[in-house]
Amino acid sequence: MIEYDRYAVGRVVRRFRKERGLSQEVFSGLCGLARSHLAMIECGTKQANFETLWKIANACGVLPSQLVEQIEQELRKPEASE
After folding, report:
1. How do the domains of the chain map onto residue ranges?
2. Dihedral over alpha carbons 24, 30, 31, 32 (to 10 degrees)
3. Are the C-beta atoms of residues 6 and 47 closer than 8 Å to each other?
4. CATH code of the domain made up of 6-81
5. Residues 53, 67: contact at Cβ < 8 Å?
6. Do the Cβ atoms of 27 and 17 come closer than 8 Å?
7. Residues 41-81: pLDDT tens digits?
8. pTM above 0.85, yes or no
9. How far, in Å, are 4, 15, 16, 23, 41 from residue 20 at the CA level?
């Protein structure tokens, strides 16, 4: 069983954003989120609900399931559980 980790979610969201070469300001606009909300998700101080993850996936041009799959892979990394 994999336990939820909002820090892992934040790392994946940040990685997706940076891979696309987008600032938090631009990316948050594409997601329909406040920049501060996105920043809190990326640093793990705010938990993203499924609707927010769906918006982030759409802004990245991927299916929500692909974003969740990347989060699951991040959670399986040895350093993510430490």
Report:
1. 6-81
2. 100
3. yes
4. 1.10.260.40
5. yes
6. yes
7. 999 999 999 999 999 999 999 999 999 999 999 998 876 44
8. yes
9. 25, 9, 7, 9, 17
